[in-house]
Amino acid sequence: MSRLAVHPLTGRPSGKDMLAFLFLQCAALALLLIASVNAAGLLLTRAVERGQEIAVRATLGAGRGRVVRQLFVESSLLALASGILGLVVAHPSIEGGRLALPATVSGAVLGWERFGVDGSVVAFAFALTVVTAVAIGVVPARCAVRGSLAGRLREAGPTVTGGRWESRIARLLLSGDVALASALLLTALLLVRSLVGLLAADPGFEAAGVLTAQWALPPKRYDRDDAVVRFQDPLLERLRALPGVVSAGFVSNLPMSRTGWTRPFRVEGGDPDAEPVLASWRPISTEYLQTLGIPLLEGRHFTRSDGSGAPKVVIVSASLAGRTGPGVDPLGRRLEVGDASWTVIGVVDDVHDFGVERRAALTIYVPQSQSPTTTGFLAVRTTGDPDEYAARVRQEIWGLDPDVAIVEVRTLPRVVRDFYAQDRLLV
């Protein structure tokens, strides 16, 4: 008998989300260790300075256990006060961070909306406070009762200086404090450097000046390929006629939009026993590549003549062109995708659809007229601020069909920033 397990989406974060949470927990633990080492060092210094006081108490009848309990009570009060202060500061800090971060940044991490201070957090903080109190009180208590307590009264001076053992412990705590702080600082610097490198790296397209919109056509009305084309072509013409618009194009899946289709392909004439290779499948309009500034390396772009009745043609990425055969010109080669055969007419530069830190995917671009889609993205390149064209783009789309769903209108630089939102959240 089969069973169905249902879980809330926010309760099932991805591996990358879990890695982010793990890093944040490690950073918090490092801060706790640094604070604990500092507190233990201060308590150790105070215990050494109170050597004569502790010796007097021992002479008056206080046993070692009583002295240890006294020091543990002091360290516990210090830890308890710190824990309460942490809880008091945590709630407004989390709420302030939630309001300060854009929704596109905080929304990139599943479960972010559930961050807060509740009963389980208070219970965990209390348990951690108890453990911390014991941890920071062990070394001072050990130093306080080490050796002969009564013999300390015979030591000269108003205070008792620490012995060799206490000095070693103090140096060890200081070294640990510096090591932990240095490791945390170095990690933070590396994160900042990595983020700067990611944002500065070339993703294979020019994001500046491009406005994007995600759309979906009513499936019942656009159940035929020619109906989709009859909507897209007039819309692109109207958008290109707007003042300040340089070019416009459609694509099934925008780079760094966390969406994508893949299809297996074979190179015609290749090894018939070889397994098909998966490639990203991108139906596009005629000016999409120019709109995103994706360089054409060989061949030609799509034109209006590459319609539904024309021979099936594709443009491939540079990484896929290398799969057509060593030392062989990819232009004119045929790719078998499904039951159809497509001729390569052009090669463009690789695009990092899923981040510059990952290898560019093999990509096949196909004319929208030969593989229409009822969902996708619109890209509009402008000479001015692309945000100023958002309302006009909506107006032009709904002017042709008011039932078209427009999911989100964003500039392409914002799409890139949102893609790296999780990395920005960690920094």
Total beta strands: 11
Distance between the termini: 47 Å
Helices, by number, come to 12
Order of SSEs = HHHHHHEHEEEHEEHEEEEHEHH
Strand content: 15-25%
How many discrete structural domains?
2
**What is the averaged pLDDT score?**
78
Helix content: 40-55%
Estimated structural class: alpha+beta
User: Biggest β-sheet: count, sense, barrel?
Assistant: 6 strands, mixed, barrel
Read across the widest sheet, the strand sequence of neighbours is 3-4-9-6-8-7
Could you characterize the architecture of this molecule?
By secondary structure, this protein is of the alpha+beta class. The chain folds into two domains: 13-200, no CATH class; 210-426, no CATH class. Helix content is 46%, strand content 16%. It has helices spanning 15-49, 51-59, 64-100, 103-106, 119-144, 164-200, 225-240, 288-292, 318-321, 390-400, 412-419, 421-426; strands spanning 210-216, 245-251, 262-267, 277-284, 296-299, 313-317, 334-337, 340-348, 363-367, 375-382, 405-411. The strands form two sheets. A six-stranded mixed β-barrel has the order 3-4-9-6-8-7. A four-stranded antiparallel beta sheet has the order 2-10-1-11. β7 (334-337) and β8 (340-348) form a beta hairpin. α1 runs antiparallel to α6 (164-200). The protein is elongated and about 105 Å long.
